Amino acid sequence: MRSRRRRRRPNLFAFDHSFLQEYGLIAGVDEAGCGPLAGPVVAAAVILPPFCKLPWLNDSKKCSASQRESLYARIQRVALAIGVGVIEPSEIDRINIRQADFAAMRLALSSLIINPLHVLVDGFRIPRGPVSQTRIIEGDTKSAHIAAASIIAKVTRDALMESWDQRFPAYGFKKHKGYGTREHLAALARFGPCPIHRLTYAPVHLVRELAMSLSSE
Predict the structure, then answer these.
(1) Do the bridges between strand 41-47 and strand 118-122 make them parallel or antiparallel, or are there none, so unpaired?
(2) Which of 151, 152, 165 is CA-nearest to residue 196?
(3) pLDDT by residue (tens digit) across 1-26?
C-alpha cells in the first residue's frame, strides 16, 4: 500500500508539468458540496510553486479526515496563492447547484492574490472564467493543483458544517456534513428543514411540502 502511495505523488505533479511549461503559472480549481441536502457549496483555487513537495497528496475523497487536515496545513504553508469561494444554500436554491458551483469557482479565482495564466478545473469548464482553462475529467485524481484545491475546498466546507452543527445540533451536521444519510433524513423528517437546508433538493422539498399541507388542514 505504501509503495503505491509513493508512486502516486510524482504522477500528480507530472501531469501538471506540460501546463507549467506552456503557461508558467497555473491554478487548480475544485469544489466540495454539490450533493449534500444542507450547507454551502465551496470551491477553492490553488497555485503551487514548481517542484514543491506535498507527500501523500491525493483527491480529498481518497484521504482520511486526519490526512486531509495534514495536507490542508501543508498546502497553506507552501502554496503561492489560495482562493476560496462560498455560495450559501439560499443562492443555490435561487440559481441551481450547477450555476452555484460555477459561481463559487469564479469567486475562488477572483480571490487569488496572484493571477494565474491558465486554470485546470475538475469536471466542467467554468462559464465566463477569467483566463484560459482546461477541463480535466476526474482531475482531482490526476493533477496536483486540482487535488490541492479539492483538499482546501473539502476541509473548508467541513469546518463550516461543524460550526453549523453547534447552532443546529439536532441534525448531526458535524457527523455527515449535510449529506443525505439515514440519520440526517430521520432528523429532517422529525424537525423539518432548518435555515441551511437546500429547499429545492427533493428530500427537503418533500418534507417542507408535507409540513405545509399538514399545517393548512
Answers:
(1) unpaired
(2) 165
(3) 444 444 444 478 899 999 999 999 99
